[in-house]
Automatic annotation (TrEMBL):
Keywords of the record: ATP-binding, Nucleotide-binding
Protein name: ATP-grasp domain-containing protein
MF-aspect GO terms: ATP binding; metal ion binding
Protein's organism: Brevibacillus borstelensis AK1
InterPro entries, A to Z: ATP-grasp, YheC/D
Length: 229
């Protein structure tokens, strides 16, 4: 759906349905790819596959890694890790890191009937040690204020990065709002690569507010709750 909006094209990773031939094509092009369940799932079932050369592939799921020899054995192994739903292939994004741990951004956007989308809060989700997913519960990670995370990270932060994040979030809200007229709240997950470019990872239609309660400053949480009334 979002791929039909030209404004969002540059922020959406190349995505195809999983099949072995597509996996090899993408590994040849990108060297590392992410396999993820279609429709999201809070970080569950996400697998990273990296080509090591000489028909050897490293498979990273959860906080465990395994090197598999041969294409047939690799496909068999990754399929054994799949959840019971279709899988997608995307290039592995070189997300910003803090002390070697990847992080992404949760942006809360909201609207009232007949009004435009508004960014009511954002924060950073830092993956737990050894994990590739930033889901806090799944990776035992933590929440940080966005400005703190960016300052501590290896991201090349431009002066207008926060405005670009807001722009991407609002454009995403407009796109989704056309398809779902009664939609009032979206928790948008954005990745920021090391060059400072935002990437759309996932849109959550029933986002939990508990992440914002973990911040030391609760103003964003209170703003989100007030907007929801």
């Amino acid at each position: 759906m979002m791929r039909q909006d030209e404004r969002l094209w540059e922020f959406l990773p190349d995505t195809v349905l999983f099949e072995p031939e597509a996996l090899w094509r993408h590994l040849e092009k990108y060297r590392s790819v992410i396999l993820k369940p279609s429709g999201g799932g809070g970080g569950a079932g996400i697998i990273k596959v990296t080509s090591l050369g000489d028909s050897r592939y490293q498979v990273h799921a959860g906080n465990g890694r395994r090197v598999v020899k041969g294409e047939e054995a690799t496909v068999k192994y990754v399929r054994s890790l799949f959840r019971p739903k279709p899988y997608l292939i995307q290039p592995y994004l070189r997300l910003g890191r803090i002390n070697g741990r990847p992080f992404d951004i949760r942006v809360m956007i909201q609207r009232t009937k007949g009004r435009p989308w508004v960014v009511t809060g954002f924060l950073a989700k830092l993956a737990g040690p050894g994990f590739i997913v930033t889901n806090i519960a799944r990776s035992r990670g933590k929440v940080l204020p966005l400005t703190v995370a960016l300052a501590q990270s290896n991201v090349d932060v431009s002066p207008d990065l926060l405005e670009e994040i807001k722009y991407v979030a609002q454009m995403t809200g407009e796109c989704l709002g056309k398809k779902y007229p009664t939609l009032r709240k979206v928790g948008l997950d954005l990745g920021i690569d090391t060059t400072g470019k935002p990437w759309i990872i996932e849109a959550n239609f029933r986002p939990s507010l508990s992440l914002f309660r973990k911040l030391p400053d609760l103003r964003a949480y209170r703003r989100i709750v007030k907007f929801s009334r």
